[in-house]
Amino acid sequence: MIARLRTFPIHALIWIAAVFIVVPFLYGLLGGFKTSDQLSGNPLGLPSPWVSGNYIDVIVSGTFWRQLLNSLFVAVATTVLVVGLSAMAAFAFARFAFRGREFLFTLFAIGLMFPFAVAILPLFVLLRTFGLLDNPLGVILPQAAFGLPLTVIILRTFFRSIPKEIEEAAIIDGCSPFGFFWRVLLPIARPALATVSVLAIVASWNNFFLPLVVLNDPSLWTLPLGVQQFQGEYMADTARILAYVIVSMVPALAFYAVAERQLISGLTAGATKG
């Protein structure tokens, strides 16, 4: 009984947070089945009648699917790049002793101190110089660069927790350092790799500011830009906007539902090993 009383405030906060997340989602979901007149007259009630045309118009829209594919391409490319480079850098920081190692690692850690918006002006000038404006690479490369610090820190901690005896046994069996990294270390670190991959995909999927600055061609827009454009085009039709927002959220929610177990297992493994 005493233990339940101690945990009651935590459970209460969790329920309050859940309410603030679920209620707006349900409002948007039901609002998409209404007309704008229904939203004005009965914003909190059930649709009467239910109007599915808003969702159907979004789903059959070629613009929506093009923006979805753009977001998917940018997110996957960013994740492959940031996880691949971070794994190799973290391996060097974790398993090799060389002069300047801690200084270089500190530089990665310092990258966490600077918000993305601080670098947007010099980044824009740099991308314009290299001709990467209106180019998916102009979004992918900066996203990967800003994702490196956190990913390197997470993977380095995990790599350092793997016993030296495993590496020594692999070397005795004829593994080179790269062979140990590729054949032994990466399979063992699969939970950590899954965790940082999920974090990288979510960060890329939700990124709005960088695509807004880099991408002017509507055919290259990602979903966050598409939502903004759709809101401006149908400003008077709130129900249609809610339907577009909800449909745009479905891919992210589906991905999280699939990756939730990997994310939790990776965080648990990291906490245990750390």
Give an account of the 3D structure:
It is a single chain. This protein has 13 helices and no strands. It has 274 residues and is mostly helical. α1 (2-31) packs antiparallel against α13 (238-273), α4 packs parallel to α7 and α7 (137-160) runs antiparallel to α10 (190-206). The chain is globular, with a radius of gyration of 23 Å. The model has no long low-confidence stretch (mean pLDDT 84).
Order of helices and strands: HHHHHHHHHHHHH
What is the approximate shape?
globular
Q: Please give the number of β-strands.
A: 0
* Rg (C-alpha, Å): 23 Å
First-residue to last-residue Cα separation? 32 Å
- Biggest beta-sheet profile: none
- Fraction in helix: over 70%
Beta-strand residue fraction: under 5%
Counting DSSP H or I runs of 4 or more residues, the number of helices is 13
Q: Whole-number average pLDDT?
A: 84
Q: Name the structural class.
A: mainly alpha
